Amino acid sequence: MIVVPYFVDTSNNEWQKLHIFLRSGGRELWSAEGTDKAIQKMLIDNGFPVVNCKKEQGVIYAQIDNSKLQMNDFYTWDEVDPETSDEDVWRSFLVPNSLWTCPVFKEFFWKTTGLPSMLSGSPIFTSPSLQSTQ
Q1: SS3 for 71?
Q2: Mean pLDDT of 10-16
Q3: Sequence spans of domains, the chain
Q4: Which pLDDT score is estimated for 133?
């Protein structure tokens, strides 16, 4: 099953910063086997303070409490070579608040990330404001 741990930093009024935990240097979605409950327990046991899990079309979106997350325990996309790394990383995406409601911007934004279209189609990441996921 595909697992997408994520959190949104809304501390800036101009931008939202979407953080998604990915594998292979930030190029691929993470996956895990087991029941929804087992996957949530595995996340917690591995340092992901889970706030909420939502299953949608075979994908578990795990909202993480970034105030409790120990980011120093993880690699970030900036610390690895995204073309060759095999490390699992937190990858950050800056989203301008003023453009997020524009469908043309959103379509272009998601295409440029190189991530699978299942993310771009999820209401979790395509709502007018990512703040609504918190």
Answers
A1: helix
A2: 87
A3: 2-96
A4: 43
Q: Which is it for strands 50-56 and 28-31: parallel, antiparallel or unpaired?
A: unpaired
What letters, b where the CB count within 10 A reaches 16 and e where it falls short, cover 21-55? bbbbbbbebbeeeeeeeebbeebeeeebebeebee
Please tell me the predicted confidence (pLDDT) of residue 131. 46
Which ranges of the chain would DSSP assign to H, the alpha helix? 36-45, 103-113, 117-120, 123-126
User: Residue written as tokens 């953080």?
Assistant: 19
Q: Which two tokens stand for residue 25?
A: 């240097």
Strand-pair category, 15-23 with 2-9: antiparallel
Q: Where is pLDDT greater, at 132 or 72?
A: 72
Measured in whole angstroms, the distance separating CA 107 from the mean position of its chain's CA atoms is 17
DSSP-derived secondary structure letter, 50: E
Map residue 5 onto helix, strand or coil: strand
- Please name which of 120, 102, 103 lies closest in space to residue 111, comparing C-alpha atoms: 120
Angle (CA) 117-79-134 rounded to 5° is 50
Q: Which amino acid is at 8?
A: V
Buried b (16+ CB within 10 A) or exposed e, 72-110: eebbebeebebeebebbbbbebebebeebeeeeebeebb
